Amino acid sequence: MSSSSPEDLYGLHPEEIPPLGSPEFDEWAAQDMRQSILITMWLMLALTVIFVAMRFYVRVRVFSRLLVDDYYLIAALLCGALSATLATIAVDSGNGLHMAILSDRQQQDVVMWTTAAFCPGIMFFGLPKVAIVLLLVRLLDPPKGFRIFLWSLIAISQVSFICLIGLLLGRCNPPARMWNPAVDGDCMDIHIVTDFAMFTGAFSAFIDVVLAVYPAFVLLQTKMPLRRKVGLTVVLGVGAVGGGVAIYKTLIIPYGLGSTDFSYHSARIIIWTTVEGSTHIMAASMPVFAPLMDMVLNGGNPFRRSKRAEKPYKHFRTNSHAMNSISFDKGAVNEAGGSNNFSESQDDILPVGKDVKVGSDGVGKMKTRSMTPMPGPGEILCTNEIDITYERKRPMEPLEAMVRGYGSASWKDW
């Protein structure tokens, strides 16, 4: 920490101001990004809300409940809304205009509210990464080593995001020194903040690329129709767009955080932070829409309610599946054609059944039945009726069913 002058606080890239009273100065002073900030920020946030609402519609309609990754996206969306609200206050104070034409009070308010908006904005694009990893781990079931690798990346990124928030809020002592140069105190060199912010942004972009390439690598090795393979690869890898946004935003960080014209150049960081966060949430939601798109491509209507009493996808919603009662007799066969030879001492006293009917209730259910034998004089009829229930570790969702190779007929009549 060292004593800082106003120029030291945001002096990494000094702003060259045209001579006062010249035509160049008038043109420079007329530059205004306030409208661009507000329109871009709230439009992207509105699109994000629509995507999240559609995601929840699919989850609740098909799966009857939300999953852990859904709650991370809710938290991210709340952070985005808070960041947009604080940024709107900053714009009202003068963010988007040049620092030199603002009053001292406006300059202080711009720095304070803009810095405050950055903090939830960081988590706006940080939390969706957790949701994406949760989704990929659930769908693709990566090996233990790669799973540890993914979660290590996420842990490092989340810690770096929290540390960056700490640097933004605590780089001056007292904190008021950051937005009010008249307050006595010390501030950390702005280079430290910008360098760490660039590291965080670059690492975030690297994670986005990994999360986009990994599902493509896995899916291209699976045996499924090419159209579905390509479609799933695209929707699971759309987060690469967020990686591109993160790279661009990282490149402009020094010119935003480190400029003496903070009120004007920080506007681009506000805009691209919102774009990055919105892109990540949309990317995390796109895979959930895959069953909808697959169904539309196969001629279904995703918004028509099923008239059936039993929905075909019901067996993917529950944690356990009960098999129908099965009578195990000599000669009974299972669905695959094998024998169910579970009778022991009964073999000597039970006559062999006649015809066997075999049926299936779908994935996770099986019925095996044999004709009930008629006991003769002096014989005893012994029948074993067994109910078998098996459990999955968790319910299966439509997207997972697609990755596992089930057809759209499994979910087209929700």
Automatic annotation (TrEMBL):
| InterPro entries, A to Z | Rhodopsin_dom_fungi, SAT4-like
Q: Which GO terms describe its cellular component?
A: membrane
Per UniProt, residues of the Rhodopsin domain are 54-294
**Compartment(s) where it occurs, according to its Swiss-Prot or TrEMBL record:** Membrane
Q: Which UniProt keywords apply?
A: Membrane, Transmembrane, Transmembrane helix
Membrane topology, from the record = Multi-pass membrane protein
Could you name the domain of life of the organism this protein comes from? Eukaryota
Q: Does the keyword Disulfide bond apply?
A: no
Chain ranges passing through the membrane: 37-58, 70-91, 111-136, 148-169, 196-220, 232-257, 277-297
Per the annotation, which location comes first and is thus the protein's main one? membrane
Q: Which Pfam families match?
A: Fung_rhodopsin (PF20684)
> Which family is it part of?
Belongs to the SAT4 family.
List the protein's name: Rhodopsin domain-containing protein
In its UniProt entry, the species of origin is given as: Stachybotrys elegans
